[in-house]
Amino acid sequence: MKLYRAAWSTNCERVALALAHKRLDVESVWIDYGDRSLVERISGQGLVPVLDDAGAIVHDSPAILAYLDARYPQAPLYPVAPARRAELETFVDWFNLVWKRWPNAIAEELEGRVPPDERTISLAAYELESALDRFTALLDGRDFLFGDFSAADCIAYPFLKFAGHRDPADDETFHVVLDDHQRLGPQHAPLAAWIERVAALPQV
Ligand SMILES: N[C@@H](CCC(=O)N[C@@H](CS)C(=O)NCC(=O)O)C(=O)O
């Protein structure tokens, strides 16, 4: 099994957590952001992560997590009960389709417009800060977002970890936005503890 990945990639880290959780052996193929030719050739698109499982090519991190869970059911990432699974999938979709738009919007303003639209930034910043309360509530009385470690933790951790720490060498605008706009207060102690808990888990 091969994982095509790139340095500092949040979406690749999702898969790195899942593969280690399932104790699957994988060869990492590190690509350069400036040269997507290899990834484009094998997957027909240029983004990472891409998984090559003995010729089965899967791209898009949520699709890779679902593929891995179906193909390798040990150490599950999704609940078996249909209602519980639907709840978790709803969280994954909310995170990707709603939550992610806020840091993306801020990063786009900072990188694209001169001068940036302050109203867009402040609205998205408000949503990002407010979401910290929701993640904290999800962790009330449990160690992981949906109880046991699951796809929800793989999906969210690589983005929420910036509330805890950022490697100073990682100065990508999107990551700086996640660092600047996710300030934890004492009320977020369960979220801070979860960040450290997931940080301590293995990754491939
Ligand atoms: N929906 C995709 C998004 C993949 C994606 O945006 N990957 C980033 C790395 S985290 C990438 O390849 N970025 C390069 C670019 O946008 O040029 C997923 O979740 O895997």
From TrEMBL:
Query: What is the superkingdom listed in this entry's lineage?
Result: Bacteria
Which residue positions does the secretion signal occupy? none
CDD domains linked to this entry: GST_C_family, GST_N_family
Q: Coiled-coil intervals in this record? A: none
Which Pfam families does the record cross-reference, listed alphabetically? GST_N_3
Cite the GST N-terminal domain residue spans from the record.
Answer: 1-76
- InterPro entries from the entry? Glutathione-S-Trfase_C_sf, Glutathione_S-Trfase, Glutathione_S-Trfase_N, GST_Omega/HSP26, Thioredoxin-like_sf
Protein name per its UniProtKB record: Glutathione S-transferase family protein
Species source reads Conexibacter stalactiti
